[in-house]
Amino acid sequence: MGTILLSTIVTSARVTLLDPSGVTWVDADFIAWANEAQRAILTVKPNAYRVKDVVQLDVGSHQVLPAGRLALLDVYENVIGEATPGRRCIKTNRAALDETTAVWPVATPEAEARQWLHDAIAPDLYEVYPPNDGTGQLRVLRATIPPILTLLANTIGVDDAYELPIKYFLIGQAYSANTQRQDTTKASYFMGEFYKLVGMRAQGE
User: Fold this and answer.
1) What is the pLDDT along the chain (205 residues), one digit of tens a residue?
2) CA angle, 97 as apex, 91 and 98 as ends, to 5°?
3) Facing residues of 118 across strands?
4) Burial of 83 from C-beta contacts in 10 A (0-12 / 13-18 / 19+)
């Protein structure tokens, strides 16, 4: 989702830290902190990294996203074979489905899901109607964990809008590190700014 290179953020952070040549803090530190920053963003904004993919349905109406998928955000359509789009799967709610057919959880299983419902309290769980026979597939939008950053040449996983919060996180962690330039006051300030910016973005969406 992101297009900004980690190296761009690290270079900017080094300028603020007055360490442009990497004398005090090495690249490996910044790479590790950038991964921590992305995970910290997900604790406030779980859908900061989103992916479209195809999920295999379990037998029955109750479904759960595969491991590593944080939350279901949307469902598009049934998928036939490996990639062929099928019938659209329409979002509904339990009250509407109960009113239509109260026995829907025990209806005859089918390969195709016509409706889906989701409870935000359990973001990785959802239900489909009719119950699935275990052969169905849906194309979904899901929130998940970004790929691990291993190089400065990697692009960040989260949206580019998180460039500044990540920079502040890197600076905060640098000042927290046990070096001759450790400064807990500055560390607290930059970490506070990180959470403030991430929280403001989460509230604004």
Assistant:
1) 789 999 999 999 999 999 999 899 999 999 999 999 999 999 888 889 999 999 999 999 999 998 777 899 999 999 998 789 999 999 999 999 999 888 999 999 999 999 999 988 898 999 999 999 999 999 999 999 999 999 999 999 999 999 999 999 999 999 999 878 899 999 999 999 999 999 876 554 5
2) 155
3) 126
4) exposed
